[in-house]
Amino acid sequence: MQFLWAFLVGGAICVIGQLMFDVFKLTPAHTMATLVVAGALLDGIGLYDPLVDFAGAGATVPITSFGNALVHGALTSLREDGWVGVITGIFKLTSAGISAAIIFSFLASVVIRPKG
Hints:
InterPro entries: Spore_V_AE, SpoVA. Keywords: Membrane, Transmembrane, Transmembrane helix. It comes from Paenibacillus terricola. Pfam families: SpoVAC_SpoVAEB. This is Stage V sporulation protein AE. The protein is an all-alpha fold. It has one domain (about 1-110). Helix content is about 80%, strand content about 0%. It is built from seven helices and no strands. Helix 2 (about 30-45) crosses helix 5 and helix 5 (about 65-80) packs across helix 6.
């Protein structure tokens, strides 16, 4: 039964992503960013961990799990280490390379404006 729920939940997340492409005409970057933020928001309000407990790999494999991991690490370290933990928690739970890419990409987006 666990495999069925993993398949259904993971498939539902993929269907949401496909609908974002087809119906809302979002680019792959917008779709990916939206799904990461959705995973982060669900973890922030405490709903992603119960989903992982229920669906297993169906919730831990899709891109939404990356947002979950970022927020989960930051909130856990915030409770343990204070405000410094918000940044260090991201590095503890996710790989330093991916976290650095996110931070530097954000900083670059603040400084550089795309040409129309």
